Each structure stands twice: as structure tokens, then as C-alpha cells.
Amino acid sequence: MAANPAPRRLPLAVTALCLVQFMDVLGVTVVVTALPSMLASLHASQAYSTLVAAAYAMFFGGLLMLGAPPPRPRCRPPCGC
Fold it and tell me: Which residue of 30, 53, 56, 80 has the fewest CB atoms within a 10 Å radius of its CB?
């Protein structure tokens, strides 16, 4: 019986997920910190800050979904469906 290699890869997967979460939080922090100066340079009011932050979050989330591999089917449907 072959040993299951999944437990050896678990720490690597958890480390990768923690790194991705850290980069996500870091990116949002940079945008939120730079938002007042960005709005001032564009001569925009503070009312647009929510719109800019939401647009950034949606764009970043979309890029994360596009970068993910498609899910693999676990079983094949029977032929003749």
C-alpha cells in the first residue's frame, strides 16, 4: 500500500494560503492609505472613496478568480445522457 503524500503537502499549502491572504491585506491597506492623496490629485471629493475602494476590491477579486484553475469533475457522467 502506497503512503498518502497529501499530509506532506499540507504545510506547504497552508503557507501558500497564508502568504496570499497577507498580500491581499497588504494590497488593500496600500489602497486605503493612498486613497486620500489619489482623490486629491484627481480633484475628486471624498464621496468617491467608497466607490474607488469597492472597484479595487471587485477588480482584485475578479483577477483572483481568473487566475484560479477550473474545477476538476470528481466523476464522469454516464454515457448516453
Answer: 80
Per-residue pLDDT of the chain (81 residues; tens, 9 = 90+): 556 656 777 888 889 888 988 988 888 888 889 999 989 998 989 888 888 888 888 888 788 778 777 777 766 666 655
For the chain, the domain total comes to: 1
Q: Which domain holds residue 42?
A: 38-64
Q: What pTM was estimated for this model as a whole?
A: 0.58
| Secondary structure letter of residue 80 according to DSSP | -
User: Residues 54, 40: contact at Cβ < 8 Å?
Assistant: no
- DSSP 3-state of 43: coil
Task: Measure CA 65 to chain center.
Answer: 7
Quick check: 80 and 58 in contact, CB under 8 A?
no
Position 76 in a domain: no
In a domain, 53, yes or no: yes
